[in-house]
């Protein structure tokens, strides 16, 4: 069945991780400098969740049976308080992060990514918090965990410096992050900018041949959850001189026994490869470890019960793991 084949992911064309060339406005650093830093996410003060108005199913967008869950995407929903967003921004716009983790590609000219929990403890505690994961999982219809540290808290920064005068929606939409499928099953796109008076700045999502839906939270701290590996989307610039900053966190199924079509195509050209490959390997090995333990348990149980060895089942298991290992090997290539 065609739907069983995941979309081909096209990544940035550049040959290696490239530092961004344009400095971000000093005002971003200035505005976050005096925020008293908090190390850990606290749901009591930082969570502000309300259910999305609607959850679109894969069936509704013509992709029934594809992906890892029947859920395609949510409409924007409130997720974090103002205080939480201030903390996130204060961790992002530091000289340390801007100096070492500010990269660009032909998809987007300003991305902050690859910083670990050591450099941004609050951000990482947000996305590993059980309450946050509970919400994300409930909406996704499947239990999710962050894919790995490197792709947690990826941030797109777009500053409209065109000084364009906004006329009543007459202009063409400008892209802040080009059309693509993600390399990971689910993403949560969180708005980190104040949206007061923002024009544009949505995430545009292709729901069918001629059906593009634009989604954007009405306020800072709103988020959209989507099965980005299976739904084509892009980010639109905010017009009229506004900043548009979004944080994208990638998720994979928690269960080792669920299909996982995570690849590294979109990440390789914007990542430090040894670090990316280490984190990819670590989680892939964890999944394999759990699957092998489970298979071994089944074999031993049958043996103990004096049942005949399930040769066919074993073959199927091994073939599946071989596919998983082959994918893993195939993803850990040099960029040529
Ligand atoms: O910034 C957005 O709205 C979405 C960006 C995106 O799709 C991505 O970074 O993969
Ligand atoms: Fe994306």
UniProtKB/TrEMBL annotation:
<feature type="domain" description="Fe2OG dioxygenase">
    <location>
        <begin position="161"/>
        <end position="255"/>
    </location>
</feature>
<dbReference type="GO" id="GO:0046872">
    <property type="term" value="F:metal ion binding"/>
</dbReference>
<keyword id="KW-0479">Metal-binding</keyword>
<comment type="similarity">
    <text>Belongs to the iron/ascorbate-dependent oxidoreductase family.</text>
</comment>
<keyword id="KW-0560">Oxidoreductase</keyword>
<protein>
    <recommendedName>
        <fullName>Fe2OG dioxygenase domain-containing protein</fullName>
    </recommendedName>
</protein>
<keyword id="KW-0408">Iron</keyword>
<dbReference type="InterPro" id="IPR005123">
    <property type="entry name" value="Oxoglu/Fe-dep_dioxygenase_dom"/>
</dbReference>
<dbReference type="GO" id="GO:0016491">
    <property type="term" value="F:oxidoreductase activity"/>
</dbReference>
